[in-house]
């Protein structure tokens, strides 16, 4: 079945643990109210252990469909099977909003950062429990959204159980945080009495990135959900102005986030189209593997929102079934590793081991020097890097801005200049972008240049003897 290409947007749901993120996603996408004991969130979780302890530890995706009048589309009967449920929603919808339900607990922060960096959401909804107030993780998530230039809104949950004094204090703290010199934005507070036209006006202004809408909701009583759903249906797609994407006319590139082995189908990869367009039976290169090589593959089938389609283009989440292009070649899950992509063969991609980056150290407890190692996130790449050179400072401290040279510790990756990167290690957070790629030929030339002084020094020592 081929469906018409729909308008789409992606919302990342972030916030402190136990603030009601997964419950809110379940209530919004399934059209039900929560029972106060987490019944709605069980329809969102991916794994059994998440249901048992009530904490999201992976990136869960759910969709919300809207018809031509931007009224929410809900199937007549709920179906736990996502394939059937999603296809019913997609079939009747003109606009699809994808929710990325991310982790709130600090020990899963790396998964949350991966979701924000690799999945390129249009907006963030920062969830704050009205009975809990602004926590350290709320500030962390807000900071990451700010650096990645993701416009965000605040959603105050659990307003039905929050004591009035705590509730008022939380609102004032959030307003103060948004007015602070680090953010310098205007909070616009909505409640259940706010007119829908007013919400439409502010939703359209989210492109400008200067306002922070603030909603007050209860997933149990339903207060404020109508206003929040209206806002979600009206926020515009940001693909055309998002620098993380190229255009539909550029060479095809697909960032692989997960891979599966589906019985009767074979190897399937899921991810996001970062550049260009892909069609059925299109040839692409899969890689780089640990040996820096790319394998030619063919796209057998394409699914978007669990519905078969004939093409996928820039900005869309998609699943591709792959097969080797060369007769006799095999393709299985052992061929995959983190950070791999599908790319147009005309690009002739060249993976690199070393590169330079302009960085800003947001936080580090002590100092960083030559040889410092930490994990870097850049698109779907998450690999440990080592600091080989610091250009302006002897050591780096919190607040420093500098250019550094980094080297991957395990395998070469395919990078582009201007790509945003996040480096983390414990509470250390460094943001920046790639400024220069160092090719293998340049590395060899540098070794030759370094070798000449060593040879001269050896000759001088021999002459002295």
TrEMBL record:
Xref: PROSITE patterns: G_TR_2
A Pfam family assignment: GTP_EFTU
Membrane as UniProt keyword: no
GO biological process: translational elongation
Domain Tr-type G: 6-240
GO molecular function, one term: translation elongation factor activity
Superkingdom field: Eukaryota
Keywords, comma-separated and alphabetical: GTP-binding, Nucleotide-binding
InterPro entries: EF-Tu_GTPase, P-loop_NTPase, T_Tr_GTP-bd_dom, Transl_B-barrel_sf, Transl_elong_EF1A/Init_IF2_C
Keyword Nucleotide-binding attributed: yes
Family stated for the protein in its record: Belongs to the TRAFAC class translation factor GTPase superfamily. Classic translation factor GTPase family. EF-Tu/EF-1A subfamily.
PANTHER family on file: ELONGATION FACTOR TU-RELATED, GTP-BINDING PROTEIN 1
Official protein name in the record: Tr-type G domain-containing protein
Organism: Paramecium tetraurelia
